[in-house]
Amino acid sequence: MIGCLAGLVVKSGHVKADDMVVDKVYHPYVLPLEREVEWRLLSRQNDTGNVLAQRLGLGWSLTETMTVEGYAIGERDPDDNFDMAGYEAEVRWQLVEQGRYWADWGLLFEYEKRHKESAYEATVGLLFEKEFGRNSLTLNAFIAREWGSMVSNGWEAEFRAQYRYRWISAFQPAIEVYTGEDFVGVGPAVIGLHRFQGQKQLKWEIGFVTELSQVSKDHSFRLALEFEF
């Protein structure tokens, strides 16, 4: 089964949305037969401009340990022209049974192509999570390869981390760290979860990340809603 996502990316200024390191810390878990609808908002402000990005998505699990999602991405340029900007497919694979070993592991695969442009990106990520008491430590390590005539061919690496205290399901404070090319950011976040009947659940996340490696201003705000059913 193939998942379909629709996404919107709205931007102003001359900062490109796909240069944003702050996005989402992935957990290595897959719910059996899960389906999900997800919406994300991401705003970044720095001395060179402003980016406001939105993403709406839909995905399905292929097996009890693997889920697939697809993305359609649009962008609005500084002249307020909106058009299709790219396509992306994502696969998340849970490698071990949750709680069976010392830590939980997963893999993430992504493939992106810019619309009507010779620009491609493939990403492989290692997902790690360790729970101790009410505390959770989640780590993501990504390696990405870009190629095409419209981009600079080469490799990039990113790292994301989230330390979360599971106080109650609806309110779980966290600290997040994001690193990428010429970027190191850290900031607070809050995660919440509400369970409905059966496997249905609604998850929300709010985070604010400040860039630390530069003297200039660089702040990112993210908001996400994810409904699993």
Automatic annotation (TrEMBL):
Superkingdom, taxonomy of origin: Bacteria
Name this protein carries in UniProt: DUF481 domain-containing protein
